[in-house]
């Protein structure tokens, strides 16, 4: 049967040869489908800028459908959708600003940057205070405890030969 080429934008397959592929990729339908796909991932600020300059589509607002679909030169966004876009853009712009603790939440990027800049030096283990574990009173009478029940000390953690006795 031969190789087939599948176009995910157009949801169709055809014979895979250079001439057929070139013809398909340059077709108006493929170009429109590809543009529609990437328009779904546009930044809300760009969408708001484009849609606020357009006149609302009378067919889309009255009937709920438009023969031109995504290629319509009029806006298919309702006023509540435009309001939601404005709110989303405002939230994004506010989060981009460097907010100080006095007037709101700090910027997460600044927190991460500060953390990695200030924690580049390694601290010595001498500064660390090791917790001490005491043997329960019930076990003080038993002198021949297995290694798994010995109290943990910093020396026992550093000495890995004791772990070989566990078995």
Structural class: mainly alpha
Parts with pLDDT < 50 across at least 5 consecutive residues:
none
The chain-level mean pLDDT equals: 78
What is the count of β-strands? 2
Number of helices: 7
End-to-end span in angstroms?
Answer: 64 Å
* Cα-based radius of gyration, to the nearest Å: 33 Å
Strand content: under 5%
Order of SSEs? EEHHHHHHH
Described by strand count, sense and barrel closure, the largest sheet is: 2 strands, antiparallel
List the strand order in the largest sheet. Answer: 1-2
Amount of helix: 40-55%
Can you tell me the overall shape? Answer: elongated
Which features does this protein show?
mainly alpha; two-stranded antiparallel ribbon; 7 helices; 2 strands
Question: If you had to describe this structure to a student in words, what would you say it looks like?
Answer:
A hairpin with a 4-residue loop joins strand 1 and strand 2. The protein is mostly helical and 167 residues long. It has a two-stranded antiparallel ribbon with strand order 1-2. The chain is 42% helix and 5% strand. The mean pLDDT is 78.
Concise overview:
With 167 residues, this protein is mainly alpha-helical. The chain has helices spanning 18-25, 28-39, 44-53, 58-63, 79-96, 108-118, 154-158, and strands at 4-7, 12-15.
SSE order and pairing:
Blueprint: E1 4-7, E2 12-15, H1 18-25, H2 28-39, H3 44-53, H4 58-63, H5 79-96, H6 108-118, H7 154-158
Antiparallel strand pairs: 1-2
